[in-house]
Task: structure prediction
Amino acid sequence: MAYTAAETETPLDPAFENDLLAIADTKLVLGNWYAECVMNGRSLPDFAGLLGMSASNYGHTRALYQYLAAHGRDYAKLERGRSAAEIRSMNLLDAAPEGWEDFLAATWLAEQATWMLMSSYLEHPDRAVAGLAKKIGQETYFHLKYVHGWLRIIGQGVLRPALENLATSLGV
Amino acid sequence: MTEEHVKHIDQERERGGLKPKYYEVFARKNSSEPLAHVGSVEAPNDDLAQVRAWFIYDQHPWIEMCVVPLDAIVTVTEHDKVTKIKAT
Result:
């Protein structure tokens, strides 16, 4: 399909802008989660994986903030000028994980949810947005595979309590 | 360090067995090059081996990367030996 580049400086549709900001902010907090939990990894290669996922989520956040800045938002305010209450990340990530299984279940849900939202823009008429969605999808593939690898190990009965705790905290 | 802050690792489940499980990593930069050995990773299963290889050997934008369980590699020859017949 033929993509078109949106004119910069033009304001975005508020609903679209809200979606991108929610994805970017969730990925910011998700990047913080991975960075904070590096030392909870099970081995040195695990540390490298967690650091890689932290860096790529920060990269997604930065790219989305830059896109929003190109359409009239203040980049400095997006990155450093907002209070915690103004960060539009998933509520799921507001409380620290209670253990390794809880960490895996929560990060899987957050990765899956942000990708569900972002993948709806894979065919966006603005090629910058479509390209961002494609790149985020390529990298999220490995983030989800990381959790799948761990679910194969801890899914033998150990994960259930973590999922039940998660369901309780979500009120479902 | 209190007991609740101690990291417990189940060697058998979380590292692939009582001995670490290794995968060899092969990659190539473009389709005109053959796959070449770039290193190895320790991982308890194929999924984690793929992810760890992807993040550790990220020095190039590889066009293709594969991991092979070390256990799957059958030695044909070794240094100072012309042929090795390996017992099955």
Notes: Residues 109 and 122 of chain A are 20 Å apart (CA to CA). Chain A has six helices and no strands. Chain A has a mean pLDDT of 87. The interface with chain B takes residues 39-40, 42-43, 45-46, 48-49, 51-53, 142, 145-146, 148-150, 152-154, 156 of chain A (CB under 8 Å).
